[in-house]
Amino acid sequence: MKLRRVSGNLKKNKVVLYALSTCGWCKKTKALLTEKGVEYEYIDLDTAKPEDRKEAIDDLKKRSLPLSVPIIIIDDVKVIRGYKPDEFKEVLQY
Q1: Is residue 32 within a helix (H) or strand (E), and if so which, with residue range?
Q2: CA torsion 61→78→36→48, rounded to 10°?
Q3: pTM of the model as a whole
């Protein structure tokens, strides 16, 4: 699946964000990660190409995650659902 990369100074974790381009909480999550200098990749499910959207949804289903956004997956292990700034800070240590 094709992800968009946002560069940042904090690169110690692999951070992937599943989002919608129209979701207010997703926009807040992107803004916070960018503000804190976290490098991350994301996919906006509503604007992705159909094959990328299918691959992203299949990945979420494989992980037994609901199709609700935002979802952040850190280092392919830790999952944070929703906009949770305190949890982001704790896990990403910014």
Answers
A1: helix 24-35
A2: -10
A3: 0.94
